[in-house]
Amino acid sequence: MSLAREVLHILENQARLQKFSRVHAVTVTIGPLAAVDGPALHFAFEAVTQGTLAEGAELHMEHPAARGCCRHCGHCFTMDSWLTPCPHCGGPAQAEGGQEMQVKDLQVSDEGMRRR
Amino acid sequence: MCTVCGCGDEEHKHEGHGGNTRQVSVETDLLARNDAHARDNRAWFERERVLALNLVSSPGSGKTHLLTATIERLRDRLPMAVIEGDQQTRRDADRIRQTGVPAVQINTGKGCHLDAHGVGHACEALEPPRGGILFIENVGNLVCPAAFDLGEARRVVVLSVTEGDDKPFKYPDMFQSAHVMIVNKLDLLPHVDFDMDACIEQARRLNPGMEVFQLSARTGQGMEAWVQWLEAQCSGRGAISDGQELETLRQRVAELESRLQQAGLMKS
């Protein structure tokens, strides 16, 4: 819920900076190793945007692949979770990225502004 | 592609899908505000030579008991303070104050974790325990607190043997981000099916550098190693920070001198 509030806070800031009054769609980038659950963020986003500039906005999520390299043999591979073992030797991975949580871009307009 | 509904039809219309919408780039981290507050907190802890520890666990692992037992052993050796995070009640802060150590309670209400902003404000109400330890007891939850940096020097995850030995793999976000794992309630080990080696192996698979302490805050077994580790962390910190403090003061004096010169109040 606090992450959804942060998304709304970012939208309200950007509305001032980039001069728009309505948000129709939001694209967020969520790495597979980020501590956030997609469906929960969807639910919370819908709840916190009621009566705001982003009410009814679509929330799209992009999940970039996380790379990791084996701590034992050095082989690099794609990680789906913190527990993904090395496909070569089964060793544990050192993650390189994958924890991104970012508002990437928005689809906006200057019409239909809803006031609180 | 229509960026509103995701369809491939460029021609159809619905609210927001027409000629009058535009795409704007944002690229802002969701945790940017928290991380900025955490940086401020970390700078304050370093300036005041305070070792800040963020204690995280599931509810009921014995964090508060661990703190009171730790304080009893270190009370005469180090200055300490505690920030207590709970959804409701002031019970934990009261328990800490009974040991004679200052404590501030943060009630998060519906919130499931502490954040750096709240911790920053709690610090305003505390006399910094210079050269000692600030324990920040997070809300009992192994999920959400993982994402929120409070500005701590070390994150300490507490787990009790009654919870099961597979906690690290069940909550990898938390265990991979922690520096220290404390396995508490060691006195109950003979009564439960808890495979200590398997638990430690899971934790170190996620984080090979994990420091591990096995102890019972109730009986005192294993407490000495933990307390010695805390003292070692503080002694290193004080020595480094004295040099840093001196350097900060030198810079401040130079800055003031240059301002006086600019104002013509001091000859160069």
UniProtKB/TrEMBL annotation, chain A:
PROSITE patterns from the xrefs?
Answer: HYPA
Q: Where is this region: Disordered?
A: 93-116
Any idea which GO molecular function terms this record carries? nickel cation binding; zinc ion binding
The answer to whether the entry has keyword Metal-binding is: yes
A Pfam family of this chain = HypA
What keywords sit in the KW lines? Metal-binding, Nickel, Zinc
Q: Name one GO biological process term.
A: protein maturation
Similarity field = Belongs to the HypA/HybF family.
Q: Which PANTHER family match?
A: HYDROGENASE MATURATION FACTOR HYPA
Name the UniProt record assigns to this protein:
Hydrogenase nickel incorporation protein HypA/HybF
UniProtKB/TrEMBL annotation, chain B:
User: Which NCBIfam families has this protein been placed in?
Assistant: hypB (TIGR00073)
One GO BP: protein maturation
Q: Does the keyword Cell cycle apply?
A: no
Instruction: Please name the Pfam families in this protein's record.
Output: cobW
Presence of the UniProt keyword Metal-binding in the record: yes
Q: Which UniProt keywords apply?
A: GTP-binding, Hydrolase, Metal-binding, Nickel, Nucleotide-binding, Zinc
State the taxonomy lineage. Answer: Bacteria, Pseudomonadati, Pseudomonadota, Gammaproteobacteria, Chromatiales
Lineage top rank: taxon: Bacteria
Please state which protein family the record places this protein in: Belongs to the SIMIBI class G3E GTPase family. HypB/HupM subfamily.
Entry GO MF terms = GTP binding; GTPase activity; nickel cation binding; zinc ion binding
Q: Please list the residue ranges annotated as the CobW/HypB/UreG nucleotide-binding domain.
A: 54-213
Q: Provide the protein name.
A: Hydrogenase maturation factor HypB
